[in-house]
Amino acid sequence: MPAPSARTPADALDVLIVGAGFGGLYGLHKLRSLGLKVRVLEAAPSVGGTWYANRYPGARVDIQSLEYSYSFDEALQQEWNWSERYAAQPELLRYANHVADRFDLRRDIELDTRVEQMHFDEGARCWHARSADGRAWSARFVIMAIGPLSSPNTPAFEGLSSFEGRVLHSAAWPHEPVDFAGRDVAVIGTGSSAVQMIPIIAEQARSLTVFQRTPAYAVPAHNGPTDRERERRIKADYAGFRARNRKMRSGFGSELSPHPLPAMQVSDAVRDAVLEERWAIGGFSLLGAFTDLFTDMRANEFACEFVRSKIRSIVQDTTVAAALCPSHPIGCKRLCVDTGYYATYNRANVSLVDVNRAPIERITPHGVLAGGREHAADLLVLATGFDAFTGPLTRIDLRGRGGLHIRDKWQPGPLNYLGLAVAGFPNLFNLVGAGSTSAFTSVIVSIEHHIDWIADCMQWMQERGHTTIEPTEEAESHYVELMHAIAQQTIFLSCNSWYLGANIPGKPRLFMPMAGGFPMYAERCAAVARDGYSGFVLH
Ligand code: N01
Q1: Which of 275, 15, 5 is nearest to 140 (CA)?
Q2: DSSP structural state of residue 114
Q3: Could you tell me which of 257, 263, 315, 390 has the fewest CB atoms within 10 Å of its CB?
Q4: How far is the CA of 197 from the centre of ligand 1 (A)?
Q5: Which conformational region is residue 48 in: left (phi greater than 0), alpha (psi within -120 to 50 degrees), or beta?
């Protein structure tokens, strides 16, 4: 462990981790195994992070569970048996709890502890944290493991507080069951959360009105019980399977290869056959069908039109089908993986309001006024997403060198180096945030990568007697320029996505994740380490 400075408080932790989701749990396990004094602070009363907070009906993972799971411990990955191809939220939460128990993590986790303040002390070269209830900690290193999607976005709808029914947000769902029977429900939003909950709510509610601003591309999950033969095959060489996945741009999906030719170079018949095959497989496999879907708008348009034709074949009312057909490039916003989403619009109790034609004017005591018509509701669900990447950090009083607030530092956008560190914020690492490829990978692949990189870095510093590490502003701006140059070669800048901050009024429009693919990103991080942490200043 890096040497403490003479002024570091004697009771300072080696590492303070904020968040006990999948990132915080693995961080604690890994760094504690190196002999470090580590503490995890978690705002919620439970471990599990995203899978504790996002418990709306139908919440489940959109990457197959055999791939959306930890790889760091062979016994863990062998003994855990997922019940379904795509695990639902309760099973994912059980898994997080199992990991916490299996690795004896709870003794170093403080639940119900929301960090409100985190200040860097330049003299002592350590961080001081304070929780909402006034408790304090000091630590030489901090890892922010609070996730890129943990700051719910509640749009400022006029009249929201006058609503006499119940208002729920997809990302802050109550823990007791919500009874939709006999209710008139309004759902605002049609992203992944809405696409998962809408079919289930529709089956129970008296009426369901969906308010759509941008139609979603949704591909069937074809969820079902785990294929035990596939599981046996994977588990026979789980390490090899994980290694092959890490060679994929997305960190998962190595069982399927893209067609050997780009979509632009094959006939219509071949293209349709390949896309049809991927539709039958389900999930993200559609976006891996051809190598040029993310880089060539014309190729992408073939896949868009393929999904639009599916929508038109499923949805009986042609006006509704037309309204559900997206016009932006597929994959530009995160693809939704669904179970019965489009077919839900064939139900007599479901209606769709296109807010581009009928803008939401205000929420009334008894519903939603849009386009001059009041749509009755006694339960209003905001499936309106997150202030992604920056929101989780900027809502904390997080100050680095010279009292610089992260909000001011990131006023032009989330400057960072390798997605892991920020100039002016020494010894602070950010997990799966802006600048990382996490949004395009199975996030656990990114989490394990980041934590292993951070752990190696801390050991390297210890061997050389360094106390602090911080990126230079030059390295940071080169990295951000590289991110933008890569994004410009893709379709990602051509729609309004949370990757761009476009869902939050007033947020700078800037592409925040690294779109270069996981192998390229991991190699870049490895090269920086091999070069003695080039781009960082060490003291
Ligand atoms: O949020 P979203 P989400 N008026 O931002 C609309 C992950 N996730 O919670 O598209 C009207 O995607 C907004 O419209 P627009 C996954 O990475 C994974 O659904 O901005 N509408 C959009 O339709 C996902 O991408 C799973 O024009 C407004 C919706 O609200 C990410 O989390 C499940 C509005 C928000 O969609 C976020 O998903 C769930 C306004 N003022 C989530 N403001 C899995 O499957 C926003 N909207 C694992």
Answers
A1: 15
A2: -
A3: 257
A4: 12
A5: left
Strands of 367-370's sheet in order across: 360-364, 367-370, 373-376
Which residue among 192, 195, 369 has the greatest number of ligand 1 atoms within 8 angstroms of its CB, and so is best to mutate?
Answer: 192
Contacts 24+ apart (CB under 8 A), 476-480: 476/415, 476/416, 476/417, 476/422, 476/423, 476/535, 477/415, 478/535, 479/416, 479/417, 479/418, 479/435, 479/535, 480/413, 480/415, 480/416, 480/435
In whole angstroms, give the CA distance from residue 186 to residue 201.
10
- Please give the pLDDT value at position 324: 98
Question: Which pLDDT tens digit goes with each residue over 33-86?
Answer: 999 999 999 999 999 999 999 999 999 999 999 999 999 999 999 999 999 999
What is the rounded CA–CA span in Å between residue 25 and residue 9?
25
Q: How far apart are CA 415 and CA 403, in angstroms?
A: 17
Please list the residues that pair with 181 across neighbouring strands.
205
Ligand 1 near 196 CB (within 6 A): yes
Residue 403: left (phi > 0), alpha (psi -120 to 50), or beta? left
Beta carbon of 205 within 6 Å of any ligand 1 atom: no
User: Is pLDDT above 70 for 2?
Assistant: no
Three-state DSSP class for 60? strand
Which residue has tokens 């693919």?
Answer: 517
**Mean pLDDT, residues 227-250 taken together:** 98
